[in-house]
Amino acid sequence: MTNVDNTNENTSGHASDNMEENSDFQDMNEILRVRRQKLAELQENGKDPFEIVKYDVTHKTRDIIDSFDTFDGQEVSIAGRLMSKRGMGKSSFCDVHDRDGKLQIYVQVNMIGPEAYSEFKKYDIGDMVGVKGEVFRTQKGEISIKVKEVVLLAKSLRPLPEKWHGLKDTDMRYRQRYLDLIVNPEVKSTFILRSKIIKAIRTFMDNRGFIEVDTPLLNTIPGGAAARPFITHHNTLDIDLYLRISPELYLKRLIVGGLEKVYELGRMFRNEGMSVKHNPEFSMMEIYEAYNDYKGMMELTEQLISTVAQEILGTTKISYQGTEIDLTPPWSRMTMCEAVKKYAGVDFDAIATADEAKKALISKGLDIKGAVSKGEAMNLMFETFAEEHLIQPTFILDYPVEISPLTKKKPGNPELTERFEVFIYAREIGNAYSELNDPIDQKERFERQVEKRESGDEEANMMDDDYVIALEHGLPPTGGLGIGIDRLIMLLTDSYSIRDILLFPTMKPRD
RNA sequence: GGGCCAUUAGCUCAGUCGGCAGAGCACUUGACUUUUAAUCAAGUUGUCCCGCGUUCGAAUCGCGGAUGGCUCACCA
Fold this sequence. Notes:
By secondary structure, this protein is α+β, with helices and mostly antiparallel strands. It is 35% helix and 25% strand. The protein has an eight-stranded mixed β-sheet with strand order 6-10-11-20-19-18-15-14, sandwiched between helices. A five-stranded mixed barrel has the order 1-2-3-5-4. A hairpin with a 2-residue loop joins strand 2 and strand 3 (101-108). The longest helix is centred in the middle third of the chain and has 23 residues, at 185-207. The radius of gyration is 30 Å and the shape is elongated. The structure holds one RNA strand.
């Protein structure tokens, strides 16, 4: 009975399964057919471009453009994708694009001979070519190569998107990112910038005496953050494993082991909602420094981000989505309690009990589901009323202990912890603690997390006994910091969506 | 999951009141030996996202569905 309605999935028009192979060619439009015919002709004449294994490239187009005076009159060879053709009978101008630039080539029939020229005229936009010739400047002043030899290095069998408007369909841009990179120059430069930013971050950390380490992506206990993990399975061991949500607990084991200053910059996986700021896999850097605390991490955060901005963009005053943001240190500092007082008008210093906190929430029109502690109430108010105002870089200090299970309590105030989050453009960019190193306290905090988990909170931490044993061997006082690398790159590249700074963002499969 | 919007040629997009499916780029043929969004002449290109309905007639109107975008909710 229940299956009857599903029959339409099998009968809805896929009757062509048995005749698909041979009808491919007929189904193609003219552009596809013509290009395949050109390839077939080349192959029949023993000139199959796909048999070529190597081309001797002496220069990149960027080098030639940047130092024309030294290349003027010299012979060079370049290679790249043919992106435009301006043919005028017995001579042609074309643009060849390589990674960092483009260069015009000038092909004349009496330079390469009538046979090679007529073959060249069959090249299509999108073909990969190698070109050898002499550098010169045209009458209109454009640096070019007068071609002595041109080689087809790969035939493009499909047309590129339109040259003037580029590729706009966002879905296609993400699914076929190579097309996006070919036709939208600003996309290519964004990803080149991403690479430079990450390199600058690593250089900064290395210069400060940190070592980069790699810890497991496959975890038996996913810890260090409040997030739902992805689950996978190892066949030989026959156990489920989790993809890591944070490297925190491994990195602190390394501090116990005496590595003192470590960082890891890599991919995290969180099985949660997707948005303009969230992708299921994303890059984060975590840093741990022995004998330091969260105040030291504040200084490190400011220095790191402002130094990278200065190096990559040449300034610490950036523009993000039309808003000026000043990354010049020092950044403003405010406790969460102060922020809530300022933006919500509620003074949590004057609130003693969870009941009073609940009343304060209700008076601000907030919904309360289940039991809410004083700290959770303050955090909720902070997120609701304060976060949106934190446009310029701002450290928010002293988070409630209930939502900070891995953080040292503030001396003299057991309700709060030595923790900050840093916000830029109302987004959380970083999160840092004075790390909790008391194994007995840690064990109790885990137990409280386990209780939350058992009462339905899928994001609460699991008990990690092995980590507690590591702490029992002695973790020095340590400062720890996590920085959302993708969000930082969004800021520095002025990108609206996280999908614009991930080459292949997670997509729902088609069909 | 809710709301709003979109889906038309390989790409970017028009398509009026329901009346033969359009443009630019790309492509094909021809002309052109310093062009550059080359130019000029001629030509080709369609599951109008899918299904059902209303109608003499649907790209256009109605209902249902798919995909995507934005947004709200969710989400350290």
